[in-house]
Structure formats: structure tokens, C-alpha cells
Amino acid sequence: xxxxxxxxxxxxxxxxxxxxxxxxxxxxxxxxxxxxxxxxxxxxxxxxxxxxxxxxxxxxxxxxxxxxxxxxxxxxxxxxxxxxxxxxxxxxxxxxxxxxxxxxxxxxxxxxxxxxxxxxxxxxxxxxxxxxxxxxxxxxxxxxxxxxxxxxxxxxxxxxxxxxxxxxxxxxxxxxxxxxxxxxxxxxxxxxxxxxxxxxxxxxxxxxxxxxxxxxxxxxxxxxxxxxxxxxxxxxxxxxxxxxxxxxxxxxxxxxxxxxxxxxxxxxxxxxxxxxxxxxxxxxxxxxxxxxxxxxxxxxxxxxxx
Length: 306
Ligand SMILES: [Zn+2]
What we know:
Elements: E1 3-4, E2 11-12, E3 17-19, E4 32-35, E5 42-45, H1 50-58, H2 61-67, H3 73-91, E6 100-104, H4 110-115, E7 121-125, H5 129-138, E8 142-144, E9 158-164, H6 173-183, E10 184-195, H7 200-204, H8 206-212, E11 219-220, H9 223-232, E12 235-243, H10 248-257, H11 272-287, E13 293-300
Parallel strand pairs: 6-7, 6-9, 7-8, 9-10
Antiparallel strand pairs: 1-2, 3-4, 4-5, 5-11, 10-13, 12-13
């Protein structure tokens, strides 16, 4: 079967299979993870078709796959808040009260609702119908349906665009980021956060590696893959940063028990010697970009004269 690399567009019937299955395979969708022989990008093949993707997001399938049948909304929002406030702290120095901000894949709108007071305009794009409805009806946010090209956002009108844990869900990431670039001002900033396939524990734990592959994640980014995609989309990369979301306790759980801490993952260590050790642990992973997460900060390479 011939596959097309979603990063460099090389076509081949001989891309090696590096993992045979995803953790949430179904009768309808059983992809394998291939590695592109030309650019080394890792991706699922075959890709989920567009109708199946929409059904996947409308049914909140990723959340239910991750949390199980006893999904608890209050527990979910409390855990999500750690990431939301980390992103608010990270984004704030890049924002000004006269900025227009776009978040693609804004989910329930938790980040947008925290950040909207720091900018002039905050717009979200969200494919999942329940998430979009919550963001609009409960949080009173300006959230629109994809694709971005028909969302009514004028070209070159956005100062800062962000996408947190979204790019790995996109089957063709370069055209996706190019569409974002079209609505960015010539000096506009792009901030993208993705899971890191160069995560140290993908190497150290076979069970963690197997858990890593899931049907919603179509592309598996390393620092090199992410830089390649962002640059191919017309951006200049300013920095590519490692971020460790999960604490040392989560890694120990994987290495000793071979399974995730689904209910209460270790995130923040609050006190004592354990906090010092955790900070050191995070710093080691982040400085070598072997952390669980990557953030790319990039500038629109198109100038006002283009
Ligand atoms: Zn490739």
C-alpha cells in the first residue's frame, strides 16, 4: 500500500512500519505508524477520512478513550486548569491589549476565557460540536467552525495565533499552518504546542511507547519534524522549547507498572525535597528537548512588502 508522508509529501510503498497498532484501534480504523524514509517523520497510515474525523470529535472519542467510562466533568476541568494556566503564563508576555488573538482547536474555550481580558479580540476555531457549543453558550466566546479559510477572518488581521495540542491531529500540517499564516499580520506570531515523540520515555518504556500511538494523533513530532513543518508553512522559527507536563512520579509509574496514571497523574510537586528533585528532573528533560511536550515560537516570514 502506497503512503504519502504528511510532512514532506514523499510517496512510497516501502515506508517501514515502526509500530503496528494504535492503543484505541477499532474495527473501522486500524492504522499503523510508519516512518518516512525521506524526512524521518512518523505518522499514522491510513489516515482517518474527513467524515470519520468529524464523528470522532463530535463524539468526544479521544476524551472517553483517555478517561474511560466514568468520565467526571469536574475532575476533567480541574486537571485541565494546570495546562490552561501554564499556557496563560507562557503567552502573556507575547500579548498586548490591542492584539487580535486566534486559537485554533480551542476545545471548550478554557484558555480563551482566561486570555480574552488581556487582548482586544480573541477568536477560537473548534471542530467538535459539543465543545464549540459550550465555548459559545456557556463562556460567551467567539468560536467558529473550521476550515479557517471560511471562518470570516480577514487576511493579515491577527497578531498572535496559537494551537495547543492540535497540530498532531491534522493530516496535512503544512497547509493547515499556511492557512493560519494567511490570517496573520506580516509580523504576526505563531505559538504551537505538540506532544514530543523524542520524549525520553518513548525510548525507555515499551508500554509508554505503545500508549503513545493513538488514532487521533496522525503525526508524531520531534523537534526536527516540528521545525521542518513550521518553516515549510512560511514561518521563521524563533525558538523551540521543551516543556515537561508530567512529574517524575508519572515516569516512575510507567517504568515500574507499565501503565498510565489515568485518574491522578503526577503533575505538580508542591513541597519539600521532592519539589527540588522534580524541578531538576524537568530541567534535564526540557534542556535536552527529551520532555513530553514541545512549544515552537515562530514569526510570519512574509513581510509587509510581500
Ligand atoms: Zn517525509
